[in-house]
């Protein structure tokens, strides 16, 4: 089991901490941030048992493998790029963000500097003029592969060939470039139309020894260093013997289930989002994993159907969205009688509510470990092992 790491990290000050909406507690030392998160989880979960010390990062900076930057024109008519101010569509100019991969930020700055010579203007969502709206960069921390997604307000991208050529000359580390068209008035970054301009249109990255393919829209944890800590912690707690059949509920692109597959007899992944299930199936093939089955379904309906067929499982791994699980899910889970439940939560408030419901079904929290996946922000992840009484 991972021990709590050294958290005496020298503090780096962020120049836009007061205005940018990206972080909420970046002004605190890392030690203080961890204490704050620990206290929050203790307060919500202590009634279910002892909360272990939070697993923090050795280096809580530059951890994000996915960044998006918005482009705009400032009052002086200069092009700026950065993040939205908290609660507004005002862009705060940022060249280097303390929680983003530095390679990605350097690419964004280069793109901004190139705009003038290509006579490209930032997109203005009010009067629908200009072209470049956002840039999304995904980096593979282990593979080193880099994807740049240019989000444009119109599909007409003059001199695109020369633009890509110039970008690749400056940044030969880029492995693929995708154009995405988003001309809607929306806070969503990506639109529906996509065209690969260079490379394969996806990158790959390795997590806990398995390779995952990432397209512009694939859901993937944004802090790969701590994701390994999180999944390792979850699997250590589960302590599988090798003969189990388990469910990976809310499985996304199949990461947890595929990583668990070496340690159990069979994994059944359930996920609502069709594109994610497609990615999960491809990821199983890519890793030559043969004992994982992915299903596109509502996880509750799926488990109830299993129960109707008198099927049971040894364990359920669950990783629901921030809104948490539901009474229906917990009822369905209990009906297939797992001995163990491992709950990975990104919101301790909904986790506390769900632990209450699970307790009523006879599941007791054995161990609770918070993990800091998002230094600088208020978010905190928690892994809970429960067993049936
Ligand atoms: N375990 C994955 C994804 C977790 S995010 C990972 O770590 O990468 C939560 C996922 O739950 C999302 O992919 C979402 O589409 C899915 N989801 C939400 N409601 C669901 C439901 N009722 N049944 C199945 N999946 C659901």
What does this molecule look like?
- This protein is an alpha/beta fold.
- It has two domains: 17-60 and 223-388, Rossmann fold (3-Layer(aba) Sandwich), CATH 3.40.50; 66-207, OB fold (Dihydrolipoamide Acetyltransferase, E2P), CATH 2.40.50.1070.
- Helix content is 28%, strand content 25%.
- It contains nine helices and 16 strands.
- It has helices at residues 30-45, 102-115, 160-170, 224-238, 255-260, 274-286, 299-308, 327-335, 348-360; strands at 66-73, 79-84, 91-93, 132-139, 146-152, 176-181, 193-198, 203-207, 210-214, 245-249, 266-271, 292-296, 315-318, 340-345, 363-371, 381-388.
- The strands form three sheets. A seven-stranded mixed sheet has the order 3-2-1-4-5-6-7, covered by helices on one side. Strands 12-11-10-13-14-16-15 form a seven-stranded mixed sheet, with helices on both faces. A two-stranded antiparallel ribbon has the order 8-9.
- The relative contact order is 0.13.
- Bound molecules: S-adenosyl-L-homocysteine.
- S-adenosyl-L-homocysteine binds next to α5 and β11.
Outline of the structure:
It contains 9 helices and 16 strands. The chain is α/β, with parallel strands linked by helices and 389 residues long. 46% of the residues are buried.
